[in-house]
Amino acid sequence: RRRLAPLNEDNGRFLLLAALIAAYLSAGATVFSALESPSEAAAQLRWNRTLHNFSRIFNISLPELRAFLRSYEAAMAAGIRVDALRPRWDFPGAFYFVGTVVSTIGFGMTTPATVAGKVFLIVYGLFGCAGTILFFNLFLERIISLLAFIMKACHERQLRRSGLLPPNFRRGPAMSGVGSLVGWKPSVYHVMLILGIFAITLSCCASAMYTAVEGWNYVDSLYYCFVTFSTIGFGDLVSSQNAAYQNQGLYRFGNFIFILMGVCCIYSLFNVISIVIKQVLNWVLKKFECRCCPKCHKSSTRLGRRNAITPGARLRRHNISMDTDGQYDSDTEGRRLSGELISMRELTASNKVSLAILQKQLSETANGYPRNVCINTRQNGFSAGVGALAIMNNRLAETSDSR
């Protein structure tokens, strides 16, 4: 009989992440329930006491009072307030609304009330959200390219100081002769640190503006910045909603710039953090690898002998961060579970393929073309990932080693 194939790495990582997310949600629900539930119960008790006292003092029946309060809640949901507020559906207000729609922030302080408006929102949001996600991905690609350029310049300067680069070294085709820069990519941890510092700085500056203009305390301003920039958008705090401000035009422009840059920056930071989480999942999977299968464990023991040459070992010793995942799959096909040693013919062929990949990447780098290499013809167009994950795989060092 043919045995069922073991769970592959991608499915194992998916199931492990699903389990961790479920545990994370359960832990978060437990903490928030413990923190907020007593306050909610106390507030409900105070409100019931106030309602009964008001009904008794002014001789108003509780059903009539509750009906009046329901009408007030409906008016409040429609955007009507006791104090004067800015118009919700003038052009600046409508522009603020569509911005929160396409960015998926969705504060909820303004919602369409007509049937035509709700139908139009469905069509408008479908294309608007898709285009905005594409804009975020393009921003991520450019910010990573900019950080890579700056970090590579710092890397070259460090090598020049240590004497590993000639003083007259310039970027270009000459880089193919320098082994220290072949296939160099920025570290995902350095990029995460830079994006984290930039996001914190941006949030602190925006919070200072909101504290001065809106009158919030600084903690509430920081809370609003995170909820808005991360597109959570609870709507309990919403900026630029008063009827008038001092220097109103300048404040609205600054509010728009801060929200736009904050959302783009936090989106990029979230994607970098997701790569780090993926690496942690890979590390956990490697720790549990083959522990449930004695046959595979024995095979891995035989492969660990002193004279054994495993596929890809030479590339791992040189620590060249290049996109050669397809090569590893084709070289090791049919041998990962058998425990056989690689022959000299296969080792020579592997080196020839590696040399061809290196020459192709150097040629494309010199001519300004993207370095997308795929020699495994069994892979389809989605094998390298799509969207932000593909961008990170192409531009950061640790991602190519994590799969």
From TrEMBL:
The keyword Ribonucleoprotein does not apply. It comes from the Eukaryota. One of its GO terms (biological process) is stabilization of membrane potential. Keywords: Cell membrane, Ion channel, Ion transport, Membrane, Metal-binding, Potassium, Potassium channel, Potassium transport, Transmembrane, Transmembrane helix, Transport, Voltage-gated channel. The keyword Disulfide bond does not apply. InterPro entries: 2pore_dom_K_chnl, 2pore_dom_K_chnl_THIK, K_chnl_dom. The chain crosses the membrane at residues 94-112, 119-140, 188-210, 222-244, 256-277. This is KCNKC protein.
